[in-house]
Amino acid sequence: MEEKTLVIRDIPVKVYCFSAVIAGSGAAGFNAADTLLRENMKDIAMISESVLAGTSRNTGSDKQTYYKLSLSGGEKDSVRALAETLFAGQSMDGDIALCEAASSVPCFNKLALLGLPFPKNRYGEYVGYKTDHDPARRATSAGPYTSKLMTEALEKSARESGLVIFDRMQIIKLIAHNEKVLGVLCLNLNSPEDPLNRYVLFRSPSIVWATGGPATMFSASVYPGSQNGATGIAFEAGAAGRNLTEWQYGLASIHPRWNVSGTYMQVLPRFVSTGRDGNDEREFLPDFFADTAQMLSLVFLKGYQWPFDARKLFGAGTQNAASGGSKAAGSSLIDIIVFLETQKGRRVFLDFTHNPLLAAEIDYASLSAECRDYLAAAGACFGTPIERLDTMNKPAVDFYRDKGVDLHSQMLEIAVCVQHNNGGLAVDCWWHSNIEGLFPVGEAAGTHGVFRPGGSALNSGQAGSMRAALYIARKRKNIPNNMEQLEIPLGEIFAEISSIMAVNESERNVPALITAARERMSMAGGMFRDETLINRALEETKKQLDNFVEMVRISGAKDLSMVFRLKDLLICQYVYLSAMADYIRHGGKSRGSALYYHKDGARPHPALPGECAALLDRGELASMIQEITCKNGTCSPVWRPVRPIPPADDFFENVWRTYRENGNVEVF
Question: Which DSSP category does 590 fall into?
Fold first, then answer.
């Protein structure tokens, strides 16, 4: 580690030089660090806003899933079969699918060896179960906190190997020149008001961008409050985005933020809404269902089919958006009904203390066979939802009790929330971006398609961070680490900060600007999308970016962290909204977790308003990928064909020879 101090525009900047820097302290970041150290690359460091923050360490579900190659039972599976499943998610590159499939077992075994309690049977098989978009039983879980356990185990291993961590460092600028990474400038959150120690620059030719998804963009979000992301900062440096239109939205509790998937839905809770003051309680799902059994069966399916899915809106698996009415409805109708209820200004709750319609007993015989047989097998065809939940999954009850919500006596407030970005920054099969030396991993990387098996994100984060680290260790270990070309970008950002500090001394407005921007994004770029709303939001966002210095009002240096957060958020929104607008212009229709209004479309249910009219995508763009860059305030989207799954390359003697030469760490 080399340390020095630069002075630019009379502002001192402490500078550290490393061979590689990992930005972010989640499961992907720590795996990258641990892999680099195992590859004997010791001159590395990790920077983090807070080591204990982020999505990996602070989120989960009732049975958080890790998706991998099947390792039990008699079902046939293979690396290529798994790659084909991932590739079938549409708009996904085949080489990345193959890499994630091939890396799934080594990454999983590493976690198991580090102590993660993945269940195995008496013979040592790691048993599995089916998850969404999964044709085999490839999913496994270490419980509701799987990603937290992963992060803690990988952190322990990396620290034991000597990892240097700089905590409380907020990235405010990714510095690149001629499309090559130079380093990252950070605001020192330990002393933001001290001008002598306010800024720290980490100079490195290789940056692993493990900053997570752009969690701050939306108001209705199940991302933990500690997760921020830094994707806008990467866009600002010229990094390309990929599949930015593709998100996951679903039902989640608000306090605490947690997906209400799995057993929370399968026990058939009661959906009620109230006024803002908690009065005027009413059940609202029956407004859309004359058939109570159909309503309850769809609620049950939300446990399996948690993300909103346009294909499960007009009917399970149907591709005919011309069919309407409740008989054709699929489980995603529940998401729309909840969303519309909240748009009326009402609050929505799950009530586990009473059966739907306040029935003394549910008519289990009338339910769908799938629902009836599941509850019968679980011994839960009795009582109230909370009694069924206690029987089927008591840890799910304990979780909320630990967070201050007793489901035995309290209703649980929910909303339709954004949960995960399937898109992100564009990478190749070594997770290398279009900016030389920048390696986005985890949710920051856009490696998923429109659909993905549940739990594949955890595997993708491990596979990508391992491959990025291997590439850096084998190909970029000895790149010179000089201080050239740093003064101009640093001078630009310090000039902007000086203008904000000097001019904007009136009433503080950054928190209000952040809140308004998030609400705007949830309305225009959330589950419901309308071209008019998207274009209006784009115009407003661009105007704020163009007038950023004049717009922002702060009360002193202590507000700088929020100022940079706001700028990252606005850049992110501008690029993501630009991608959505281009998708519509390109003829894109409702797919994945987004419903696009179409004047010639059909409503999924006759009681829904006209703005719910849509046409389902029939795979017209399934073999294409949208990528987008933003330079000088202008976004430039392009469409290209997906890269197919590479042909088999397994003649042993050839592979062995090149493996001896370079470990087969190469770009094709």
Answer: B
